[in-house]
Amino acid sequence: MNKYVNVTKMSITLDNNVADELNSLAKELNEKKSHLIENALMLYFDMLDEKLSDKRLREMQSGEVKTIPAEEVWKELGL
């Protein structure tokens, strides 16, 4: 059974210093580079999610974005 289900193969270009660090860490930790990159990206995406949620909260608090009460949405949907 193939353990690589639902994956996308990609080719990326890295700065030499980043590539050297990745190679060094992969070797020392005995991990695949793709595994380290995937974990690093997931952590980075989590950080970006937090940054975006903070931005959206500021927009709501400043009145830049109008919110719709849930009751109004439910009524419109007939729920």
Describe the structure.
The protein is mainly alpha-helical. It has three helices and no strands. The protein has helices spanning 16-29, 33-62, 70-77. The mean pLDDT is 93.
How would you briefly describe this protein structure?
This protein is an all-alpha fold. Helix content is 66%, strand content 0%.
Helicity, as a percent range: 55-70%
What fraction of residues sit in β-strands?
Answer: under 5%
Order of helices and strands: HHH
Q: What is the CA-based Rg, rounded?
A: 21 Å
Low-confidence runs of at least 5 consecutive residues: none
Number of helices: 3
Per the principal axes of the C-alpha atoms, what is the gross shape?
Answer: elongated
Q: Characterize the largest beta sheet: strand count, sense, and whether it forms a barrel.
A: none
Question: Would you tell me the structural class of the helices and strands?
Answer: mainly alpha
Considering the chains and any ligands shown, give keywords for the structure.
79 residues, 0% strand, elongated
Write the layout of secondary structure elements.
Blueprint: H1 16-29, H2 33-62, H3 70-77
